[in-house]
Amino acid sequence: MAIDTGTPAGSGAPAEASFGQPEDAHQLSAKLRNAAVEALPPGRLMPDRQPAYVASWIYVFGVITIAALSIVILTGCVLAVMGPTWWHVSTTGLFVNSLHLWSVEVFFFAMVVHLWGKFFMAAWRGRRRATWITGVVSFMVSVGAAFTGYLSQQNFDSQWISTQAKDGINSTGAGAIFNVTNFGQMLMWHIVLLPLVVVLVVGIHVLLVRRRGVVPPFADPPSSGGTAQATAAAGAATIGADGTGPVPTPSPSSNGGPA
Amino acid sequence: MEQLSLVLVQLFGSVVDLNRPGHYLHWGFIQMSLANAIVIGLMVVVFFAAILIPFRRHGGKS
Amino acid sequence: MSGTDTASVKRHRSFKPDRDVEEWHGAYAPYDLVKEFIIAFVVVAILVVGLAAILSSPDETPVTVKSWSTSDPVDFAQTAITELDGTSGTATYGPPYNSTADASQSIGFFSPESWFGVHHPIDTATDYVIDPLRTLPNSPELQQAVDLYTAAPAAQQAKWTAAYETAVAKATYGDGTLTVPAGDYGPVGTMIAGLTSMARSGALDGALLSSRQFYGTDYTKPLLFIADGTYLANLAQSQHLSGDQWGMMNETGNFPGQAWLWLYTLWYQVPPMNSSSNGDLQVWAIMMGLTLLLALVPFIPGLRSIPRWTRLYRLIWRQHYRELAAERDIHGKSPPPAAAEPRAPAAVSVH
């Protein structure tokens, strides 16, 4: 039995003075670190390569969504620096508000294109269901964050949206606590609570993508003339063009049939 | 900063003014603003463009 | 670890192509994620700056009780009397503002609105008419009218307000005076006229916002009062923001709005939701159900098969399938060597 050195077996990292000592293995810190490093070793957290099938522009819409979210948050911070009245009385403020609005439009645009792409790739396959679910949750929370943003505008639009939306929300009983006509409350949900939740859920979503990797393609269907078995057979012995190892076709069956 | 903004607004702001009565499309019971229809249409176009336009990787085989 | 052990493989559940996938043991290609993010950030920033500079953003001036009563004093007076006699939208709303019987929405026995109860109490007669009038200084005639009203029995109050509500439907406004056809309204006529003047001066906005504290950030009272009238709704209608105009998706002017609310607002256009008094709760129930369905797609047979059936993935991964076909052509149909047997689905290995 291997001695528990406090670092994951095979990680190659030697014990140092500040971590990895066997007698510290029981610590919460050591356990948390080991679990994190085992789930996401640095090479998996920030890889420099992706599977060869990651070769389509549809794959960039996740990162575009995150880039747009970063700009939403940055411009939101500038608006926060100057306060909620600023954009009504200053041309610069109106411009920053416009940046905030249009980055939100780009955010939702990219997120929905990303969603469509991931749906048609059936990206939940292979134990990636949590990735899909966190994606849907981040969509819903983002809609909520945008909603509270519209409520925080302090103009005609927010008056109409609040007096209309209250009916839907009140019907669920949530209006007892979540009062859309209460500007102070809606502003704080918009700039404190919901951004935290959005970033948390998106963060978990991205970490799950790193942990499981990008979903492989569907097995090559046999309709093109060869059988699936033949396809597996044909591809199995090939070395990849960049020399990184065999390129077997994913077989549709793992029931122990002839390989 | 405020002066710069005012100058830039004069330069760019009059190119397109969206603060005018909106245009709306009607199909049966569906009503949609032209702006929203453009956004949704663009999304569909971009989605298919993303799938169809070839993606060339740096350094690897395409 | 052998992948050909039939017994161990059979212990795994059967492979379902819409749920499972053979993990990738093939080629990897360089892909700089950090560089990709930086490029995405710069591209999006340029796009956003361009859109903001050219298209700007909307900022329609808010309605105030003052602007409302100045633009349409008759509508204001007609709303004010319904607040006094408890027949306005807010007065008859039910929870969370008051406990009007049978006002809560429900689906069968399910009525969360009534379960949560009243949390933002509004007594429209007191909050919108009597208390604001009480704040006015130097108005002895008005204060006498309010005293007379509040001292009268409920039945007498109801007679006065009912008569006034009928008459004010034909009211006119001119030379700073609200003119209502003659009738026996007791002190109600003076009260409503006084409230209208108070509203037009701007004093009512302040009274409604600061009724509990100096630093008001809760606009519930003035907003609900304004929304009880038709002025706000007419403005919204002209901007195509009404519910029956799919307004939930729209923005003022020609700006794009919230296109992602298309499905939520769609249900408000179809029966029975479009005419039911429980329509809001019904739509919410539908949307909660559909959202759950979307989140649980990976678990739902049929729904999760749509990607495979529609075969759009053939376009997305056409490069990959082309490479496989090319290798198939090169290597023919001979069986693979043992080393390349498919392994049981396992965690992704990183090289």
Structure at a glance:
With about 260 residues, chain A is mainly alpha-helical. Chain A has helices at about 30-40, 40-45, 60-80, 85-90, 90-120, 130-150, 155-170, 185-210, 230-235; one strand spanning about 50. Among the domains of chain A are: about 60-120; about 125-215, no CATH class.
Describe the structure.
The complex is a heterotrimer of chains A (259), B (62) and C (351). Chain A has 259 residues and is mostly helical. Chain A has helices at residues 28-39, 42-45, 61-82, 86-89, 91-120, 129-151, 156-171, 183-212, 228-236, and one strand at 49-51. Among the domains of chain A are: 58-121; 123-214, no CATH class. Chain A is built from 9 helices and 1 strand; from the N terminus they run ααβααααααα. The two termini of chain A are 35 Å apart. Mean pLDDT of chain A is 85; it is low at 1-5 and 223-259. Chain B is α+β, with helices and mostly antiparallel strands and 62 residues long. Chain B contains 2 helices and 2 strands, in the order αββα. A two-stranded antiparallel ribbon of chain B has the order 1-2. In chain B, a hairpin with a 2-residue loop joins β1 and β2. The longest helix of chain B is centred in the C-terminal third of the chain and has 19 residues, at 34-52. The radius of gyration of chain B is 20 Å and the shape is flat. Chain C has helices spanning 6-11, 33-55, 65-71, 73-84, 112-116, 124-134, 140-151, 154-168, 188-201, 203-209, 220-228, 231-238, 262-266, 279-295, 306-310, 313-316, 318-331, and strands at residues 28-30, 172-174, 177-179. With 351 residues, chain C is an all-alpha fold. The chains are: A mainly alpha (259), B alpha+beta (62), C mainly alpha (351). The interface between A and C is large, with 122 and 130 residues. β1 of chain A pairs antiparallel with β1 of chain C.
Rounded to the nearest angstrom, the distance between the terminal CA atoms of chain B is: 47 Å
pLDDT < 50 stretches of chain C: 1-9, 334-351
For the largest interface in this structure, which chains are involved and how many residues does each contribute? A-C, 122 and 130 residues
Number of strands of chain B: 2
Helix percentage of chain B: 40-55%
N to C succession of SSEs of chain B? HEEH
The share of residues in extended strands of chain C comes to under 5%
Stretches of chain B where pLDDT is under 50 for at least 5 consecutive residues are none
Q: Oligomeric state of the chains? A: heterotrimer
Proportion of β residues of chain B? 5-15%
Structural class of chain B: alpha+beta
**How many helical elements of chain C?**
17
What would you call the structural class of chain C? Answer: mainly alpha
Instruction: Give the number of DSSP strands of chain C.
Output: 3
Give the overall shape of chain C, derived from the CA principal axes. Answer: elongated
